[in-house]
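Methyltransferase type 12
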Amino acid sequence: MAGSDCGGTDSVANGKSRFDDIYNSPDPRAYFGRLAPLEYEIPHHAQPVFRQTAAERAALDDGRPHRSAVLDVCCSYGINAALLNHHITLAELYERYTSPARQTMSTAELAAQDKEFYTERRRPDAVPVFGLDIAAPAVHYALEVGLLDAAFTDDLEQGPPSPRLRRALAEVGLITLTGGGSYITDRTFTALLDCARRPVWVSAFVLRTVSYHPVVRALVTHGLCTTLDITRTYPQRRFTDERERQYAIAAVRALGGDPAGREENGRFHSLRYESRPNTP
Ligand SMILES: C[S@@+](CC[C@H](N)C(=O)[O-])C[C@H]1O[C@@H](n2cnc3c(N)ncnc32)[C@H](O)[C@@H]1O
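Structure:
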C-alpha cells in the first residue's frame, strides 16, 4: 500500500510521510494537533459535496420504508460524519481539539463533552452514517460520541467482510472517502459493492499522486459509471518537507498530471470522483 494521505513526521512510505500513531489514539486530539500545522483541509472541501450527494441519494429512497445509510470509508474519528450531520466546520473542530483547555482532560471527560456538543449541533436533515476504519480506537470514539450509527474495523484489503459488516452493507446507499485513497484499493471497493443490496453511489476525494483507475474499473463491473471533475483540484495539506514535495511532483507527473501551480507550490491536491449507476 502506498502510504498516508494526511502527513507525517518520522516514517516514510513510498516517498510520502506517514504517522500512524495519530490514527490510533483514544480520541481526536493528537490527530488535529498534528495536522493543524499541515493545514489538512480535505474534509472541509468534501463537506458541501457529501451533503449535496447524500441529499440526492436520499431522494431515491423516497417512499421506501427505510432510509439508506452513508458509509464513510477510512472514517477515522468520524470527521466527515461530524461535518455532514452537524452545524459545524472543520475550522471549529481544529479549534476544539487543539484548545489548551482540552489538552488536560481525560478521554472520558472529552467524550462526555463531545456527546453534548454534537447533540446540540445535530442537523434536522441528518442521515445515518456507518464508519469503516482499521483504527479501532478512532471508530470507537466516533461511535461513543454519537457521530456514527455503526462502526466496523474490517480490513478489506486483507480479507472478506465480517457477517456484521455484510448485513450493514445491505443498508448502504452512498460510500464517501477522504484521505484514504492511498490506503485502500479496488479490493476494498469490490468487497463493499459485492455486498450491496441497494443502488450505491460513491463520492471520493483522492490525491493526484495516486491512480484511481483500478477502483473505477472495479466500479464499472458493479454497474457504476465514474465522472471526474476536471475543472478544479482540492488542496489537501502542506508537505512535511522538501523530500515529500519532490516525491509528489514526480508521482503526479508519472500519472500524466501537471504539478505546476499545485504540488510545486507546496501542497498535495486531490481530485473529486463521483460514481453512480449507469441506469437510475
Ligand atoms: C488520512 S486518515 C483520513 C481520515 C478522515 N477520512 C479524514 O479525511 O480526516 C486515513 C485513515 O485510513 C485508515 N485506513 C488505513 N488503511 C485502511 C484500510 N485498509 N481500511 C480502512 N481504513 C484504513 C487509517 O486508519 C486512517 O484513519
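Residues 111 and 233 are 35 Å apart (CA to CA).
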